[in-house]
Amino acid sequence: MIKQPASIVATVRNEKETIVAFVESLLNQSYKPAEIIIVDGVSLDGTRELLEEYSGRGEIILISEDCNIAQGRNIGIRRARSEIIAVTDAGCIVTESWLENIMNCFANEPRPDVVAGNFRFICHTMFEEVVSLATFSPDRDETEAARYYPSSRSIAFTKSAWNKARGYPEWLYAAEDTLFNIRLRQLGCHFVFARDAIVRWRPRETWKALARQRLNFARGNARVGIGTQGYISYMRYLVTVLLLLLLGFLSPWLMLFSLLPVIQHVRHVLLPHAVRAEEKSGKPGLRWYIMLVMEFVRLVSIAGFLAGRLDRIVDKKYIDSQKIWMNVQDS
């Protein structure tokens, strides 16, 4: 194992119910961090007061500042003394060997610039389990997404790589970690995947919370042009189905044609994922529930995508800021 100091940086806002378990998980790491920096975005529910107790005992460094999540991460990283920065978020439970597994990766040659941590879900209800199965690939650990698109709930990188990327994009409210990953790849940073560096968190607990989360994700993606082709492809499918249904009012036979794209969509898009996810869960009979959640997420995401595209048209800061941050020149 590499004997090099590492700083843990985390952000939080209004997580009173989970903050103690989160901080305790950071304090109980098998590889002790040089420092734990928590940036509180001016919580109003008592979170800050609980963090102040840890800060008063010298167990964490607490910074309280009105900021979004990207700003909060950058504030914490600037304050950090170590070259290796491990990033996570409140609302999670960091497994005891998380930092140790990350640091083992930094001991390898060629030395990585970025270590993509892993994650698992803590599910308290059947709905939460289905959400986790529906929204992530059952084979995710074997895909390039695991290595190159880590959530910033579980990631580590060198401070020099962060500096080259100009930090997290502070002008972006959601999808900031995805764009940060893209920028690091654009700069040629070397990524490795730490399969056993696991952070756990709960999926969204209700349909409403899931809708809000996915709408924000899609809106953030659309503001910076991430995944555009996938959203457009799904919109074409929806338009085709709607047009065929409208034509069905002219003739019942024509309405039958609207079933064809739906059957194809279920057969080729929803069902393969749902079957694999059901097998992974070991609980037969979940595939239809999984497909329902998958389609719900897709529909909500279209609303977020359209809102984000409108944001991009109305507010030129998203295009201009992205060009500046990613060093893209107009042709």
What's the quick description here?
By secondary structure, this protein is of the alpha/beta class. Helix content is 53%, strand content 15%.
Molecular structure report:
There is one protein chain. With 331 residues, the chain is an alpha/beta fold. It is 53% helix and 15% strand. It has helices at 19-27, 47-56, 69-79, 98-106, 126-135, 144-148, 159-164, 176-186, 207-224, 228-247, 252-257, 259-281, 287-314, 317-325, and strands at 6-12, 35-40, 61-64, 84-89, 92-94, 114-121, 155-158, 191-201. It has an 8-stranded mixed beta sheet, sandwiched between helices. The termini are far apart.
Keywords, separated by commas or semicolons:
alpha/beta, 14 helices, 2 domains, 331 residues, Spore Coat Polysaccharide Biosynthesis Protein SpsA, Chain A, 15% strand
Strand segment count? 8
**Class inferred from helices and paired strands:** alpha/beta
How many domains make up the 3D coordinates?
Answer: 2
Strand order of the biggest β-sheet: 3-2-1-4-7-6-8-5
What is the CATH homologous superfamily assignment of the largest domain? Spore Coat Polysaccharide Biosynthesis Protein SpsA, Chain A
Task: Outline the biggest β-sheet.
Answer: 8 strands, mixed
- Taking pLDDT < 50 over at least 5 consecutive residues as the criterion, the unreliable ranges are none
Number of helices: 14
H/E element string?
A: EHEHEHEEHEHHEHHEHHHHHH
Determine the CATH topology of the largest domain: Spore Coat Polysaccharide Biosynthesis Protein SpsA, Chain A
CATH architecture of the largest domain: Alpha-Beta Complex
